[in-house]
Amino acid sequence: MEKTSPISETNEVEFVTYKSKTYGIKVGCGTFYCTIDYNADGSFHKIRIPRNTKFNCSLMMRDAMAKGATYKIRRDPKQLIKDLKGNKGHCCEKYNISCKAYSCSDALSKVVERELSK
Are 70 and 47 in contact (CB under 8 A)? Predict the structure, then answer.
């Protein structure tokens, strides 16, 4: 029989922590919140979008947007901004002058653009 060994010799669990920032942008159907996680070296790790149901767009669309944006932000963030900026495909009916973005994808592009400008 093979002998199994613990993950570390001291049997301590090591946790990985990420620096993150959360942004809120007003869109037609509410405030769109987005969290960007960073690796220890300052590079992008993951984009998180909460799974609340008050938005008009479906949960599947928000999850797909977060996964696609995470994939693309690691490779080419400027192309991500170009693809999502000004997207009116899922524009909310309640969009008015007080809103800062047309849709959730437009809001996400504004968050990434703000992070890259820093």
Answer: yes
In a domain, 7, yes or no: no
Amino acid at 38: Y
Residue for token digits 């919140």? Answer: 33
The residue written with tokens 């620096």 in the block is 19
Residue 97 and residue 104: Cα distance in Å, rounded? 16
Structure tokens at 4: 């199994």
8 in a structural domain: no
Alpha-carbon span 69 to 71, nearest angstrom: 5
pLDDT band, very low/low/confident/very high, at 106 (cuts 50, 70, 90): confident
Closest CA to 91 of 100, 101, 81: 101
- Asked whether the predicted pLDDT for residue 104 surpasses 90, the reply is no
Q: For the chain, how many structural domains are there in total?
A: 1
